[in-house]
Each structure stands twice: as structure tokens, then as C-alpha cells.
Amino acid sequence: MPELPEVETVCRGLRPFMEGKLLKNVTCHRQNLRNPFPPMFAERLEQQKVVSILRRGKYILVNLGDYTWIMHLGMSGRIQRNLAKDYIHQKHDHVVWQVDGVIFAFNDARRFGDMDLVSSYADYSPLKNMAPEPFEISNDEFYKRLKSTSRPLKTALLDQSIIAGLGNIYVCEALWQSGLSPFKTSNTITLSQTKVLLKNVVEVLERAITAGGSTLRDHRAVDGALGYFQNQLKVYDQKDKHCLTANCPGTIKREAQAGRSTYYCEICQKN
Ligand SMILES: [Zn+2]
Known about the structure:
The protein is α+β, with helices and mostly antiparallel strands. The protein is 25% helix and 21% strand.
């Protein structure tokens, strides 16, 4: 499932080709993804100028001036860039648009992706209660939000109203790097632990963005490039491997937590 670094990688792949340009030949090959497309969707995108492309959490926001085209990649969504003259329609290319001589195809085999067109993205319900971005939240604000829940710390970190954009991979990595237990009750965290955790969340995300995200299942950059962060994973998907914390004799465990796999070291993630 694409997380913040993968979505950021996609945005960075779109910006140089779409910003300041007109959308043309917008075609929907179905009526819906996870949800139906809004009425007259393709017609309303046609000939619109892309002012800018932003990211909020795992949402891609294409700012068209009067309204915003919102995209979510869901589980398996990807956007592929092709030269218009070379483009051949692929299975699962559900929405296709052209910008100058380039065709973009939103391809989504599992169709958990989503698209919408709204006049104010700030009022769009999934974004309305979304917490600040990891790169923007203050230590005090993050601490206040973590103290507000008695759920396990890992579950709290996946909640988009506590911090935006984090998913399973990066939460496991950041908790391990911070020596914090995923099972710890969120509201028992201290301010100094919060500071370490936020620093590590940002560090892990920045490294992942630099590596082009993680390619564990379906993620591709817009130019088709794979992300390489999976080669840097220390704990996620590393069950039974030796813990890489200096002098730690532990091995990495996997346990189901709120329906997701949690990877952790029970020796150095005790706090
Ligand atoms: Zn360890």
C-alpha cells in the first residue's frame, strides 16, 4: 500500500510534466474506482490548467484554481507516464489524460483507489480532520495528540487524525529506531520519547523519499522506476532476522496488531 514516501515520489514525478499545463483528452474507462466518479468528471477536467500539485497525507491534490482534483492510490494504484505516440492502453488503465505530448494513465488492478473533484480540499471529509504532516507537526502538538489516546502506540501512529501519512512500514521502522514498544499505551509516552520518535519518523520518511519509496508490491514512480527503500528496511518484513541495534541479541518478531503485521524486537523495544 502506498504510504507518504511513495505518494510524494508520485507527486514529484507529476509536477514537472503537469504544472502550468492544460489537461486534454481526459478519458474514464469506467464509472468508478472505490467510489463512483463525480458527475461529468472527465468533461470538467478537460482543458483545465494545472496550477500546482500538492500532497496531503496519502492524497494527491491537483490544484486547478477553481477546484481541486483529488486522487488516492488505494492499495495498488499507480500513475504511469508515457509519450503519447508510444502509449498503448493497458489492462486496468482506468483514467487517462494528456498533457502536451505525454499521456498519464491511472492504473489500479484492485480498484481501492479514489478520485474526486472538490471546490475546497480543506472541506473534503477525509482531509478535514487530518493531523499535520510529520514534517510540520511540532513536538508539543505531537505529544498532545499521542497523550489523547489509550490505544497502543503503533495503532495511534497509523491514525491519520494523530499524524498524517504514516503507514505500517514506516511506523515499524520509526518505532524500532526509537527503541519504543509498538504495544506501549500511547498516553504513557513522555515528551522526551516523543521528541526522539518524531525525529526518527522524519528521518525514516526522508530516507524513503530519497530512495523513491519502497517497492514491496505495486509501487512504481511515474516513470516506472522502482523504489529502493525496501533494501534499507531494518525491521519491517525482517521476521527471524537478527536485530540490527548495536549489541542487541534480539531477533525480529512479527505479531498481528489491529489486523496488521507489527515487526519489532522485544529486547530493545521494551520501553
Ligand atoms: Zn533489538
